[in-house]
Design goal:
The protein is of the alpha+beta class and 213 residues long. The protein is 39% helix and 11% strand. The longest helix is centred in the middle third of the chain and has 26 residues. The protein is globular and about 50 Å long.
Length: 213
């Protein structure tokens, strides 16, 4: 008897639908760290960040080049943190900042709490340049475990955090260049000032919006 040429048809699976938990919480609402304190071990952070700095230090031409590479490492993190933080905000406040002051308050508060479990220490407006603002951190965590040699005393590894801030600013459509500067005082020798220099077009738009009020 000749074998039948009929082939069994492949079993088709019904498309799976995304299941929402009864408490309406999704994976994006959960902290990545499930420990009771929800904090990364400082020893782990110190090791990982030290390795990042060592990697960025390879084949650099000087301090500015090293800080630029650290900034470039932080920038993508800022772009990705922005939508996550907005998703976790209550619905009435989960609006992407589109003005300078709300953006600075977002960086000073929710962003700093996500990164360092506290707010930044100060927000200031430059008295000499209308497009420049400063956010201060008296004790940047990223500098506490980095030993800087004397010949590189001007180096500030918080340039990595400056990159994160720059990514958040650009993600909000408020283009800015962000840099980290040593601003130590007698009380806070490790103080860092993050200088946020917005593009002129951002400041001009801000003025037009203020004029419409």
């Amino acid at each position: 008897m000749a074998a039948s040429s009929h082939q069994p048809s492949a079993v088709q699976r019904a498309p799976q639908q995304l299941r929402t938990p009864s408490n309406r919480k999704t994976i994006y609402d959960r902290n990545l760290n499930r420990s009771r304190t929800a904090e990364l071990s400082r020893a782990s952070f110190a090791y990982l960040f030290g390795e990042m700095v060592s990697y960025a230090q390879k084949r650099v031409t000087g301090i500015q080049d090293l800080e630029r590479r650290l900034n470039e490492q932080g920038y993508p993190l800022g772009l990705r943190l922005l939508p996550l933080l907005l998703y976790r905000e209550p619905p009435r406040t989960s609006v992407r900042p589109n003005r300078i002051l709300p953006l600075l308050q977002f960086i000073h508060g929710p962003l700093w709490r996500q990164l360092f479990s506290r707010t930044a220490d100060a927000i200031e407006h430059s008295s000499s340049a209308n497009n420049e603002y400063m956010i201060s951190d008296n004790e940047p965590l990223v500098n506490q475990y980095i030993s800087v040699p004397k010949e590189m005393s001007q180096l500030n590894c918080a340039a990595y955090v400056a990159g994160i801030i720059e990514g958040v600013c650009d993600g909000c459509g408020l283009k800015a260049a962000v840099s980290a500067h040593n601003g130590g005082t007698e009380m806070w020798p490790g103080k860092t000032v993050f200088l946020i220099r917005f593009e002129e077009g951002v400041v001009e738009r801000e003025g037009l919006l203020d004029a419409k009020k």
